[in-house]
Here is the input.
Amino acid sequence: MNFAVLQFPASNCDQDALHVLTNVLGQSARFVWHKENSLAGIDAVIIPGGFSYGDYLRTGAIARFSPIMEALQTFAANGGPVLGICNGFQILCEAGLLPGALIRNRSLQFRCEQIFIKPVNTSSPFTHKIPAGKTLRLPIAHGEGCYFADNDTLEKLKSNNQILWQYTNANGEPTGMSNPNGSLLNIAGVCNEAGNVAGLMPHPERASEAVLGSDDGRWIFDSLLSWLEKKTAKAA
Amino acid sequence: MKARIIVTPKKAVLDPQGKSVQNALTQMGYQGIGDVHVGKYLEIELAGNDKEAWRKQIDNACHKILSNPVIEDYSFEIV
Here is the structure.
């Protein structure tokens, strides 16, 4: 499969994402600079973490007006899968491709630690390979990861099965103590209504090899990959 | 001319910064401190003197990029 990893000024997880896609998963992947305006030939897009445009104004607020974002809107509207990680999630929310917003952590602290998440929707392109009941141990590193949406939006997310992951304890229970940033409903990641655009604050690309302490992140990439393979087989 | 823009978190949005400032003020002994909301102030210098045209453009910019309507309110004046 052909993956694109978008690069904005001050993206800093772009190399990690490309490494996992090429060296760990054996896929073809390339960087796409934010000033480019085409995603031709791309099967899936990863928007990596970082601090695009220094987080000025709001996280993701300026990146979302980069030239590549227009091509991304079209790509997403045509059903192409897009995964935003950390700053990528923030950019997708600012761009209106995902509902809600990410605001300052309730503790006001930058949180950099290992947490657990559990898939809530287990049939999405980003979660369907994760074994039932499995919690994923992934790192987080963010100051603005508190997921916020108004009550109507939260109700819609629940009824449309758009909450992909929740912060939980090691036993998979979404407790207050296991919520690292104050996110409403312990939300760690959501998808759009169509299900092809997703974002999450934790970093699966930093936990896709056992040597890094956890390879739980691979479940997310493996889900996406197997979904893409099925889609390609259907089209053929 | 200038646009003076104030962006504040919506009342329904958690505002941990405002809460901390409120706690600090209360701990310092200031009496009667209520809710605190921490926002942003932007000042933009504008060419020409067509106030009405700028009002429309600044309103548009506030809605599109300077604030996020999901979490923030804005107000502005052109002076």
Q: What stands out?
A: The mean pLDDT of chain B is 95. The domain at 2-78 of chain B is CATH 3.30.1280.10 (Mth169; Chain: A ,).
